[in-house]
Amino acid sequence: MSRDQWIETNLRARDRVPRLGWLMLALVILGAVGFYMAWGQGIRAWQAYWVNFLFFAGLAQAGVIVAALVQSTGGRWGGALVRLGLLQVAFVPVTLVLYTGVVLGAADLLPWVAEPIEAKAWWLNLDFFLIRLGVALAIITVCSLAFAYYAIRPDAGAIAAGGKSPFPRWF
């Protein structure tokens, strides 16, 4: 398939995708209103936020990890699986934005903030903990986006015919 045919095929496929922007915005607003209503119940709102943050951030990162594992082991069986995993990379930067909610609720959420553990006080210092976690999340996000960029790039036709790709063509 030539580059022009590839572009035309993708444009036709894009036109068939339903536009759900307003629905997604309504769901985000509904979620924010629900969180605000649960705010008065104290720690329950932060616990729900924490569980959802960990679940969806982990799920998005797991897709990228599976794609990286299939690529690094040379697994030719995982082409479709790799593409599904790379679709999830779109949510990885969102986790950086959602991390601000973790920072805001950390004092209520983490039990060792109210009752410090003396032997681990330096390691579990709230500021050091949140900075360490934020930096690790930022590094993981950059690595995931870089992997997805170079994995998708050959399919996007961004590499010239004679150019070198770090990934095999079948990927």
Write the layout of secondary structure elements.
Elements: H1 3-16, H2 21-38, H3 43-73, H4 79-87, H5 92-109, H6 111-114, H7 126-156
Number of helices: 7
Mean pLDDT: 82
SSE class: mainly alpha
Kindly provide the radius of gyration, computed on alpha-carbon positions and rounded to a whole number of angstroms.
Answer: 21 Å
Question: What string, H for helix and E for strand, traces the elements in order?
Answer: HHHHHHH
Shape: flat
Distance between the termini: 16 Å
Q: What percent strand?
A: under 5%
Query: Low-confidence segments, ≥5 residues, pLDDT <50?
Result: 159-163, 165-171
Tell me how many strands there are. Answer: 0
Walk me through what this model shows.
The chain has 171 residues and is an all-alpha fold. The chain has two domains: 1-41; 42-171. Helices cover 73% and strands 0% of the residues. The longest helix has 31 residues, at 43-73. The two termini are 16 Å apart.
Task: Report a brief summary of the structure.
This protein is an all-alpha fold and 171 residues long.
Q: Which key features would you list for this structure?
A:
171 residues, mainly alpha, 2 domains, 7 helices, 73% helix, 0% strand, flat, disordered C terminus
